[in-house]
Every structure is written in C-alpha cells, then in structure tokens.
Amino acid sequence: MNNQLISRVNKQDARVAMAHMYVAFLALAIGGLMGLLQVFVRSGKYELPGNIGYYQVLTVHGVMLGLVLTTFFIMGFQYAAVSRTAGAFSAKQRTSAWIGFWLMTLGTAMAAVMILLNEATVLYTFYAPLQAHWIFYLGLTFVVVGSWLVGFAQVSRYVQWRKAHKGEPSPLLTFMAVVNSVMWFVATIGVASEVLLQLLPWSLGLIERVDVLITRTLFWYFGHALVYFWLLPAYMAWYAIVPKIIGGRIFSDSLARLSFMLFLLFSIPVGFHHQLTEPGISAFWKFLQVILTFMVIIPSLMTAFSMFAMFEMRGRELGGKGLFGWFRKLPWGDARFLVPFIGMVAFIPAGAGGIINASHQMNQVVHNTIWVTGHFHLTVATTVLLTFFGIAYWLIPHLTGRVLTPQMNTLAIVQAFTWAFGMTIMSGAMHWVGLLGAPRRSSFSTYGDAAQAMEWIPYQIAQAVGGTILFLGIILVLIIFANLAWFAPKGDEEFPVAEVAEQAEKTPMVLENWKIWMTVLVALILIAYTIPVMDIVNGGPLGSKGFKLW
Amino acid sequence: MHLHRYEKWWLTFGVGSLVVFLVVIGVGAFHQGHQPPSSVKTINYEQVDKTAPFDEPGLKKVSGQDWDYELVVVASAFYYAPVEAEIPVGSKVKIIATTKDVVHGFEVAGTNINMMLEPGYISEYVTTLDKTGEFLVLCNEYCGTGHHTMKSMLKVVESNE
C-alpha cells in the first residue's frame, strides 16, 4: 500500500514540524508558570512581586496557551500528518510553510514584548475600547497571516494529491487537516478584519473611533471556530491514529469525513452564543445561532459512537468477553492510547457544560463567571491538551529520529494522572464557585468583605491547590519533551496511521466535493449574520475612543 | 452511507433529545418571555451623565408599567452608581444600565441578573426579586486595573406594606 512507501515524514518536512513544536512547548512553559502565579494570587495568600500586575500575567497566560501553544502545535502536527499521508511537500510548499512559521514566531515575539512592557494588558480577547499598543495588534496579525501560509502549504499538497489520484478519496488525515485549515481561513477572516480595518488603524491614530459591538461580533465570528480549530486536531488523532495504536481499524472512513464536514459547517455561524447577554443584538438572532450551535452535538455524538465502537471491536478481537469484558483488554499501559483516552473522558462533562453555556437564557446564570474558565480548562486544557501530549509522545521522537522509552512512557502516564487529578480539583472548584457567582478574569477581592465574596475564598484556595498540581504536570511534560527532543535513544518511532475496517463501505466522493460544502457554509454564515450585522451597522451608536485603564 | 443499527438508535435518541431541549428553551424564550437581555437602544456614551434617565442613577418607583421599579445604573471604571439600592422583596424591577467608558459586566451575584454593558448601548433586563438578602453587584468583564474593586450592593428587604 501507499502507506508503507511513505511511512516516515520527509526529513525536511520533519524540521518544519519540529520547529513548531519547540515554540509550542516553550509557550506551554511560560503560560503554565503564569497560570501558577494566577491561582496563587486569586487564593488571597500571595501577592505578585514588583510592579507585575495580575492582569498582565493573565494576558500572558491566555496569549501563550490559547493562541501560541495551540496554533503552533496544530500547524506543526497537521503539516507532519499531511507529509506523512499525502507525501513530502514540494520545495515551494515547504518554503511557504517556513515563511509562515517565522512570521508567526516574529508576531508572537512582538506581542510578547508589548505585553511585558505593560503596553497590551488587554487579555487575549483584546476587547475594544481598551486599546493596546499597535505593535501588539500587528504581532497578532503576523501570527494569523503566518498560520495562513502554513495552512496554504497543506491545502496545496492536498490539491496536488487529488490531481494525481483522480476519483480516489484522499488520505483521511490529510483530508482532516485540510478541513481544519479551511475552517481556520474562513474564521480568521473575522478577526483579521477586526484587527486590520479597526483596531490597528485605531491604535495608530488613523481613525478616532471604532464601533465596539462590531469588533466584538467579528471577534466571536472567529472566536468560536477557534475552539473547534483546537478540537479538530484532537479528533484527527482519535479517528485516524488511536485505532492504529491499539491495533484496531478505523470504524468508518465516511462517518469520520462526514463529522468533519459538519464541524466545518457549524463552527462559524454560531458566534452569538458568546454574546447572549449583550445589547444591540435582538433575541431572535441569538436564538437562531443557539440552534446552529447545537448542531455540532450531532457530529460529537457520531464521534463518541465511533470511538467506543472501535474500542469494543478491538477489545473483542483480543478476546474480551461479556458486556464490558472488552474494556479491560485495551492497552492501558500505552501512554499513546491512555493519555488521549483520559482526554476523551474529560470531554463528557466538558461537552455537557458547553451545552449549558450556549443555552440562550440559561447562559445568564454562568456568563463570565469562573464556571466558564472551569469549562474551557476541561475542553481545551484537558481534552485537547492531553490528546496533544499523547500525539507528542510519538510525533516528537518520530521527527527527531528517537524513541519513546518505557521509562518515558511510564512518566507520561504519571503526567496524565497528575493532570487529571489537578484539573478535577481546579476545574471542579471553578465550576462550583462560578455557580455561586464568582467572576472570571478577576484578581483576588473580597469586595469590601461582602458576605458572598467571603464564601468564595475556600474554593479559590482549592483552585490554587489544583493549579499547583497542574503545574507539576507541566514540569513532567516538559521533562518528557526535552528527553524526546534531545536525549532519548536514537531509533525509529512509528507515526501511527490507521486503516479502515475491512467491512466498511467505500467512501462516497460527495464528502470531498468542496463546492457543495463551501456553498452550504457560506449560505449558513449569510443567514446567521447578514441581518443582525446590518442592524448593528445601521443602528450603531457613536463609536468609541481608545482607553488605557491599566 | 451505511450506519450501524446501534448507531441509528444512538443518533435517533441523541437528536431527539436535542430537539426536545431546543423546544424547551425556545418555549421559555418566546412563549414565556424569558429572553436574554437584548435591548437595542443606543446612547452617546460621552453624554451619559446628561442623558435621562442616567442623569439620576438609582431606584425609582414607577406606575403604569409592567414593573414596579426602575433601577438606573451607570457604570464607569471602576464604579457603579448608585453604590447601593434597597428594594422590597417580591417587586418586579426593570434594570436599565449603561457604561461611560469601556465594556463592563453587570452581574448581581446569586441571581440571574447578568448582562454586558457596552459603550453606546443601553442594557435592560426585567426580573422579580423574590429572595431577601444582600446581593453583591460586581463587574464580570475585565475593564482595567481596578476591575475587581468595582462593586455595589442590592439589598432586597422585607416589604413594610
């Protein structure tokens, strides 16, 4: 088969992917340390030294982990996955990826310097009319444009493959990487126009005022797709890599592709569910987007079914008997399986919490409380991140020509349990105290010894305990990363790519008919956004000047 | 495309639950009128202090409306006006709020009152206060260095009547 011929990622491509990994894990180290400082401050028992502000630390945490770690890891992983399954990139495609990588790195450095100089303490959502230094906005623009170039390389390799293999379905991992890149292109148009047409000229003094609601609407047009941009690479691993690790096969190639296409359709026209309590958008349009938001529950249910069907088939193949006997047969000692599996389990409460958040009027109970922080520390910081760690444990040695030793495998398992334990405490406390009303993104405060705020303090101490355990988890994963990048024994670590189960049916080509899917996507976006955006533009108030309140 | 029999059951059950769930929140929103705060009224944010009703923040008894009181709130970095309001339990109140500068998050902890205040827009929400107690009003959207010091108190007291 094709797969055996190209079972190693091309050496030059490996360098591109590995460059992304270095930045990603550096961001994890910095962002993780900031997280530790935050939970300490919020416990009320510790104050930051010198002139360092809580919100400055919070901005670093969000930018490093939410934007830098994720984007670099995803682009590096997808790039390697396309090279592995569709074949090495051409010199031109690779150059595009390198330029993209350096542009993203430069942009990250620019944003980081401005945050450290306290010129951009606006958190990673940079809501106007708080106004950061223009270099911060330009840096973020470079990160996005750079990611486009790395994404273009992947799409271009896919197009080349399709031309060379007329009438055949593309390799599943390549297809999935392309779906995620396309979603990223369409979604980042929102944030790019927010920054390029509004925030950047505004911070440079070229325009005096911006319409705050328009900036927020553009941000959230992008912002919810952003969370699916984080999630889909994890799904890539679950659908197309984990089956190989456990010795099984992909449950259904068509189902995997269909669920990715549904994610593409229902990730973007849904941003209003982050704006449910905002003025200026009528309740009808909010509700319409709530319905569209909930459509992603369908591919999520399909994924859950596929995963457990695949696990059961493999467990029975290994001799598992009875209703649940197959469960014990799975390779629990293999970090490449166990670590993402813990991530999957976390997605059950995480998904349920997400449904609550997006539930129209129910959102008022939790909006901007620390419940939401607890929610996305389960989704992105557990489900997605543990899956990324599980990927890194074979991807990094594969790229560096080393192997994951049994000692590192054990350490990886310890890491995952440390993470799960710390997160249960921290996220659990956040969810609970959020229901009592404690706000997110706030430094320690007793609000003048208000009785309610005093009740929140024990939970905030629990968050500090959980956060400290999580920081230990970050130290462990950094030790493993360093080992796999520089010290592990030389050898051949497999890049696992699963094949389709024999009894599965042929993949219908309609799933790769981009004209159909893109038409539906554009139509959904227009339906969901045209009228409410026109209302905002036509009925908009006097725009806002910039404020620097930090 | 072929779907396994169990998968059909699973998806039927899942999608069925989803439809029921959406109908429940839809009926709550459109039939029972429990919508999230979605006022589309605008204001010049630089003239808030001179614009009625924000020139006189505080609680007012009103008549001839569907609600008994109006609570007018002006937010600015890092204050709420009024700093305190006292209201009889069981009264229906319309909260009318806006900001003079950046985005703030108006939240009354322990209640469902939770809405964004954005420059240029007026946020409104009608609710009945059916529990007595002192409820902390705080800001839940980052607005600058003093964000976590922004507060006010809503006291729901036993009615004298």
UniProtKB/TrEMBL annotation, chain A:
<keyword id="KW-0812">Transmembrane</keyword>
<dbReference type="Pfam" id="PF00115">
    <property type="entry name" value="COX1"/>
</dbReference>
<feature type="domain" description="Cytochrome oxidase subunit I profile">
    <location>
        <begin position="5"/>
        <end position="484"/>
    </location>
</feature>
<feature type="transmembrane region" description="Helical">
    <location>
        <begin position="21"/>
        <end position="41"/>
    </location>
</feature>
<feature type="transmembrane region" description="Helical">
    <location>
        <begin position="408"/>
        <end position="433"/>
    </location>
</feature>
<dbReference type="GO" id="GO:0009060">
    <property type="term" value="P:aerobic respiration"/>
</dbReference>
<dbReference type="GO" id="GO:0016020">
    <property type="term" value="C:membrane"/>
</dbReference>
<feature type="transmembrane region" description="Helical">
    <location>
        <begin position="254"/>
        <end position="272"/>
    </location>
</feature>
<feature type="transmembrane region" description="Helical">
    <location>
        <begin position="516"/>
        <end position="534"/>
    </location>
</feature>
<feature type="transmembrane region" description="Helical">
    <location>
        <begin position="172"/>
        <end position="199"/>
    </location>
</feature>
<dbReference type="InterPro" id="IPR036927">
    <property type="entry name" value="Cyt_c_oxase-like_su1_sf"/>
</dbReference>
<keyword id="KW-1133">Transmembrane helix</keyword>
<keyword id="KW-0472">Membrane</keyword>
<feature type="transmembrane region" description="Helical">
    <location>
        <begin position="464"/>
        <end position="486"/>
    </location>
</feature>
<dbReference type="GO" id="GO:0004129">
    <property type="term" value="F:cytochrome-c oxidase activity"/>
</dbReference>
<protein>
    <submittedName>
        <fullName>Cytochrome C</fullName>
    </submittedName>
</protein>
<dbReference type="GO" id="GO:0020037">
    <property type="term" value="F:heme binding"/>
</dbReference>
<feature type="transmembrane region" description="Helical">
    <location>
        <begin position="219"/>
        <end position="242"/>
    </location>
</feature>
<feature type="transmembrane region" description="Helical">
    <location>
        <begin position="376"/>
        <end position="396"/>
    </location>
</feature>
<keyword id="KW-0679">Respiratory chain</keyword>
<feature type="transmembrane region" description="Helical">
    <location>
        <begin position="132"/>
        <end position="151"/>
    </location>
</feature>
<keyword id="KW-0249">Electron transport</keyword>
UniProtKB/TrEMBL annotation, chain B:
<dbReference type="GO" id="GO:0004129">
    <property type="term" value="F:cytochrome-c oxidase activity"/>
</dbReference>
<dbReference type="Pfam" id="PF00116">
    <property type="entry name" value="COX2"/>
</dbReference>
<dbReference type="InterPro" id="IPR001505">
    <property type="entry name" value="Copper_CuA"/>
</dbReference>
<dbReference type="GO" id="GO:0030313">
    <property type="term" value="C:cell envelope"/>
</dbReference>
<keyword id="KW-0186">Copper</keyword>
<dbReference type="GO" id="GO:0005507">
    <property type="term" value="F:copper ion binding"/>
</dbReference>
<keyword id="KW-0812">Transmembrane</keyword>
<dbReference type="InterPro" id="IPR008972">
    <property type="entry name" value="Cupredoxin"/>
</dbReference>
<protein>
    <recommendedName>
        <fullName>Cytochrome aa3 subunit 2</fullName>
    </recommendedName>
</protein>
<keyword id="KW-0472">Membrane</keyword>
<keyword id="KW-0479">Metal-binding</keyword>
<comment type="function">
    <text>Subunits I and II form the functional core of the enzyme complex. Electrons originating in cytochrome c are transferred via heme a and Cu(A) to the binuclear center formed by heme a3 and Cu(B).</text>
</comment>
<feature type="transmembrane region" description="Helical">
    <location>
        <begin position="9"/>
        <end position="30"/>
    </location>
</feature>
<dbReference type="InterPro" id="IPR051403">
    <property type="entry name" value="NosZ/Cyto_c_oxidase_sub2"/>
</dbReference>
<feature type="domain" description="Cytochrome oxidase subunit II copper A binding">
    <location>
        <begin position="55"/>
        <end position="161"/>
    </location>
</feature>
<keyword id="KW-1133">Transmembrane helix</keyword>
<dbReference type="InterPro" id="IPR002429">
    <property type="entry name" value="CcO_II-like_C"/>
</dbReference>
<dbReference type="GO" id="GO:0016020">
    <property type="term" value="C:membrane"/>
</dbReference>
